[in-house]
Amino acid sequence: MKTKGALIRAHNQPWEIEEIELGDPQPHEIKIRMEAAGMCHSDHHLMTGGIPLAGFPILGGHEGAGVVVELGEGVTDFEVGDHVVLSFIPSCGKCPSCKRGLANLCDLGAHLLQGEAVSDNTFRIHTAKGENVYPMTLLGTFSPYMVVHEASAVKIEKDIPFEVAALVGCGVPTGYGSSTRSGDVRPGEDVAIVGVGGVGIAALQGAVIAGARYVFAIDPVPWKREQALKFGATHAFESVAEASAKIAELTWGHMCHKVIVTVGEVHGKDVDTWMGITAKAGTCVLTGMGNMMDSEVTLNLAMLTLLQKSLQGTIFGGANPKLDIPQLLSMYKVGKLNIEDMITRQYRLDQVNEGYQDMLDGKNIRGVIWYTEEDW
Predict the structure, then answer these.
(1) Phi/psi at 45 (nearest 5 deg)?
(2) Taking a C-beta distance cutoff of 8 angstroms, is the pair 204, 229 a contact?
(3) Of 63, 90, 220, 370, which has the maximum CB count within 10 A?
């Protein structure tokens, strides 16, 4: 079928809305009519080249929710009309990683940046000129329709607003899990959240729900610091340098048991700064993405050893998509997790560049693209 999508044809160039041709669902694939797509910073990394896909043009978007409209052969877990969230990492449930309880490291994830569908290693999307299109993490939610492997979709209850559901495909479980799973925040611990955009606000809520004593939000944008306090932070600071003295005062010099780094772009030179506010035997969780070609890190190895600190990487917050996405939405339904207020602005697909500029300008916790009948 013919539809449209937001494409990138070269690094550091704006998104362009183009006509694309979407193939029919193959075995174990489903076609989805998209209702909403979240605008995550990781898609901006596509533009800058920080996340390099295997080729161009690239179809953006890896957060989203919609309705199943067609099934491929062999699909048994979904029916036409089901509401689904797209999980940016597929979960097959069968590979060694999934069997070990590490569904966020599912072996299907090895194919996410190649552009070829995992079902048959062919391209499911083409431009009007017949060019292969490389969808972000084999999804491409910046299009009104998608064809994806069933391992990349999670069925949800039909009374969940689509704009809320969209955020649980990446940002919410990534942030929440960075605190509760990868960070393992315990009741009474002191936690710093460095960067309070969409992922950071979810991490902040995770720390609060886990029972943290002090939650220090650190972000250079004044409005975001105000929002962090509304979401449960006990203190907010412009920078780590500004926060350090107050953290030391309130913790009697022990610093933070857990430091969750959710900045939009990680730079290796800053790692030791974040470790500096991490307590002895504490853990610094790196959630934010840096350039995948960057291998330079500033880190005092002696202090890492002598103070027995841990530097922990995490993807998807250590989440099990098939389990955690419905669970987080159930927490939202009973008022335990505030996702609605994380949505700052909604955009049409043709406003995608405006939305990302708002993100870079610090105006959004999370922007959401909303699809209508005009798009379908």
Answers:
(1) -65, -25
(2) no
(3) 63
